[in-house]
Amino acid sequence: MASECQLCQEIFSSRKDLVTHERIKHRNNKIISHRKTLLQPPLEQVTFYQDAFIVLIKKRLGFNRHSIGTKQVSINAFPENIFVYLFEHEPSFRYSPVQRKYSCSFQGEAGEQRLKQLVNYDHWNVRQDPKLRTIGYVLFMDNEGSYGVSFSWSQSEFKENERVFHCGTATYPSYLKQIVSFRKHQT
Hints:
Helix content is 26%, strand content 32%. The protein is α+β, with helices and mostly antiparallel strands. The protein has two domains: 1-29; 31-184, no CATH class. It has a five-stranded antiparallel β-sheet with strand order 3-11-10-5-4. The protein has a three-stranded antiparallel β-sheet with strand order 6-7-12, with no helix packed on it. This is C2H2-type domain-containing protein.
């Protein structure tokens, strides 16, 4: 079955060829052909998902050495319009029409500061254990370099009994070099 690129109308013999074409020719695409159908989300709904992100990240920040390493958090049933609302004006925002997938990444200290603004909370990436006097945090900069956090949103589809079900999933962070590090406070 032939597939058409929504961005340049070139025809491909398979979806796989279209995905490859889009990845090569349109890898920095920001055009969302259905943008007009994505309604402006109410502030209460945006705040709800900002809070959900913060809660889930803080739950993943542990206080022992086994907690160090890459972490991934997913929120199922995450509305597409909220993801677009939060990230579409960021320089690294990308959209893949054929995969119906968005991505946006943040790097280093500037990325950390921008995320604090986007989630409306300066301490989203830090969790303190007062008993152990230990801090778990998402690392963006250290002596070895800078690290990044990537966000993505994709739509899943399930078909059954002539009905199609859709569900959006936001993944924070995905495929990143997020490092959760720990340091002891001196008493």
